[in-house]
Amino acid sequence: MRLFLTGPVRRAVLLSCLLVLAACKTEIYSNLPEREANEMMSVLLDGGVEASKAAGKEGYSLQVDASEVQRALEILSANGLPRSARESIGQVFAKSGIVSSPFEERVRYVYALSEEVAQTLQEIDGVLVARVHIVMPEAPALGEVAKPSSAAVFIRTREGYDLEYLTPQIRRLVSNSIEGLTFDAVSVTLVETRPPAAQAARSEAVLRAVLPGVQVHMTSVGMFWTWFGGLAAVALAGIGAAGWLAWERFGKARRPVAQADEAAS
Question: 64 and which of 72, 156, 164, 200 could share a cystine (Cβ 3.0–4.6 Å)?
Fold first, then answer.
């Protein structure tokens, strides 16, 4: 026996399904460049979190299951994502029509230079975050001793990447990128990020009973009831449609019998 759903019933069923699907997804980031959205989605999928992206007017948004928001944010943070926007020298020194003082120009120059060098360091495999702090003293007055320039480099690396062997190359790159900076005046600090697995291990898997004989992880309770409620609504809509069709068919089958009884009487 085939079951045909009428227009209103069909729309109710489809609406219930759409509500279930929409309720299970939560947007965690928006207005992302497509390349960064793809990178973040790839990291989440590697970490066991189902993720999807959607195109918007000003970029892409990243969505995950509502029960996976916390774990997704921890994984992205551990991988240095999303990356902070850096300004290039051209952007920092963009003409604004306002005359800047020599001090302001110097501050902007040092900032732009540190951003450019940090961006270069961030291209090294295994580097999540790179920051460069440059100290460039002003030119000494007549008779004063010139203070040497210095730079401090902070690098956060991925789990399992030991970049200690690259420290001399990093110091050489920074010293050669900044005028008046010597190799010995560059310090490098490497910090390995804590793996997402260690963060997830902080809370042991705890099961919670939601129905007699049914247990789910405590982080998935909300998702379970969302799906359960949606499926229950769809099932009720299907039962109602089947009952209405059965009643209609029963009425059609009874109508000829009633007409025959009336004719016989």
Answer: 72
